[in-house]
User: What shape does this take?
Amino acid sequence: MSTGARNDARRRLGAPTLAMLPRIADSLSFLYMESVRITQDDTGVRAHVESPRGVEKVYIPTASLGCVLLGPGTSITQQAMATFARHGTSLICVGAGGVRSYANIAPSSLTTGWLEKQARIWADDDLRTQAAVRMYQQRFNLTVPEGTTLAQLRGMEGQRVKAHYRLLADKYRVKWFKRNYDPSNWDSQDPVNLALSAANTCLYGVVHAAICALGCSPALGFVHSGTQHAFVYDIADLYKAQVTIPLAFSLHTSGNPEREARTKLREQFRLVRLLPRIVTDIQHVLDPDNRQPSADRVVDIVHLWDPELGSLPAGVNYADGTDTAEGSDYTDGMDGSDPVLDLDHDDILTNLGESWPQ
Assistant: This one.
């Protein structure tokens, strides 16, 4: 076998198939990288890391990651990005320490079922309010009385979050705490705020990956709005009181709270397996009565939309009349006539442009 044939065989073996792609619920949480170069070779995706021993090459388990946070100083080749996309791994560009999320690349091998549910709820004020109430109920583990407005829910949220801060401050003997997020004056913040901001950003990345894995839009939020990450913030708020806020207060004496927050948060994600929980919670918010186990990667299935018949299969020549609605006056030639031959010359010019050359 020639060298070219062997290389081609290795590339084909390295390309993932549908059966090889894992479910998003089975993925690890996230991987944060900073000041590394990411490339693709015949074996897989690898990171070039500078160390006292020189440049080390570390292979990345692309198919086992929910998302990769790309920090400052990180470069990535087009081939490596394509491999991440084929494995269904979201790439998110973040600021120093994972503080901000700037952009993401999501795989395209997803159906639009959950996205369509999300868009219908977002476009209907009543359904959107119901979804917001469901999230508040889950977040605070209480039953919201019927007729409670969103303004009242926001007030309840503020009171409970402040009470949660006070309890944790007493537990860890933090004398004074006020939530403060100031990117322009980042280093002057206290350790709890630094840890909380870093932890929340990592949480946003994982939630973002789960949302994209379901094919939903991160921008169509029900509580938050006006940002491309509105739905990310909606879902992430479900876990802050249990995950990121207690972790931040536990690091109030840390010398490097941002790094410790990311490290400990990764360990917590693996222990509680937060990704499958996020997937389930998103499905419950969008469809509380019928949870569908649709977190698997699936082949693109394209349908045609019809307001009377619903979804119709694509790739079908409907000149045969197989989709004619009951009671329709359209005969499409099934009664012995030929609707194409019965068209006048003016009809052809109107509907098809210039008549086809014979």
